[in-house]
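Risk register update: the risk that structure generation would not scale has been downgraded. Supporting records follow, first protein first.
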Amino acid sequence: MAKRNSLGKGLGAIFTDLVDHGSSKPHFHLCGIEELKPNSFQPRRSFNGNEISKLAESIGTSGIIQPIIVRKSPPGYEIIAGERRWRAAQEAGLREVPVIIREATDRDLAEWSIIENLQREELNPIEEADAYNRLISTFKLAQEEIAARVGKDRSTIANMLRLLKLPSPVKEALINETISAGHARAILTLESTSDQLTLLKEIIGGKLSVREAEKRAGKIKKSEPPEKKRQKDTSLHNLETMLSQKLMAKVTIRQKKRGGSLEIRYLSLDELNRIIDHMLSRENR
C-alpha cells in the first residue's frame, strides 16, 4: 500500500469521501452492536465515564450522526475510528449502529488511531509516547516518518518518547495531571531515580511551576558529589555487550565493593514482555 503523506492533516484527509463537498452522503449500513470490537491498536488506556455518559444521553436523543468507521475482522468488524460512539451507544441501549467499512492494514489502524485521538486531544502524554513507541517497535517507523504522519516536529516525537524513561510514580503523576509534561522534562534532566522522585515530591508539595522545577533540578545536579570514574573491567564490558545483543535491550552491569546490580532497560510494556518471554523460554529449555 502506498504511503499516505496526508495523515498529519487529519482523518478528513484520509477518508476524503466522508467530507461534505455537496456530494451525496457516503454509503453506510447498520451493524449489530455486538458485531463490533475495539481497535486493537487503540492508544487510549482509559475512557472518561462521565464523557461517555453525556455522549450516551445525546445519542439516546438524537441517534448517531457520524457513522463508525470499521474494517472487516471475521466474524465481525474492528473499529478504526469511533470507539467512544460505540461505547456510548452500548450505554444508551442501542442494538445497531451505522458503520462505514474500509480496507486497512494493521499499520494503517495504528496510525489512524493516534491521529484521531491527537485531534480530539484525548491522549495523555504517556499514552501518546507509548503509541509512538509502538509504531517504532512494531512497524519499524523512524521518528521522522512518525513526525510527518502526525504533523509534528521530529524533536517533539523524541521528547515524548523520553517520557517513557521516567519512574512509574512520575508517569502516574503525569497521567493524573498532577504534574505537566514540562515538569516531567525537568525531572528527566536528573540521572538518578532517587533524585527524580525527590524532585517529584517537591513539585507536588511546593506546587512548583515548570520554571521553578527546572531551577530546582539544576541545584540538585550541582549538589551531587562527583562520581568516581572507574575504568570498567573489560570482561564486564564484553558481558554487557553480549547480554544487550541477546536480549535486544540495553544492559548495564554495576560492580560495587560487595556484589552489584544488573540493569535491563526497556521503553514499553510490550518490550518488557518480549524480554521476559525470551528469558523464560531460555530457562525452560
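Supporting record for the second protein:
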Amino acid sequence: MITSIVLMKVEPKKINEVAQQLAGLERISEVYSVSGRYDIVAMIRTAENEELSQVVTEQFLQIDGIVSSETLIAFRVFSRYDLERMFDIS
C-alpha cells in the first residue's frame, strides 16, 4: 500500500467546495482543512504508483480552485493508530 500526503493551496472562497470534491474521490481516505502555508491536506492510499499518478495528475486537474499542490510519499508508518487499524479483524 502506497500512502501519499498531498499539501494543497486553494482559492480561499473554494476551500470547502474543493475539500468536499476531494473527499468524494475513491482513493482519498481523508481530507483536512488546515492552517498555515497550505489550505488542504489529503491522504491518498493506492496499491500502485500508477493509481497515485492518475489521482494527482488527472483527477485533481478536474477540480476547480486548486492553485498548487505538493505530493509527499510515505516510506514507513510509525503511528500506533495506523498499525492497530491494519491488524484489526473486528
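The CA atoms of residues 72 and 79 lie 17 Å apart. On this basis the risk owner (M.S.) recommends closing the item.
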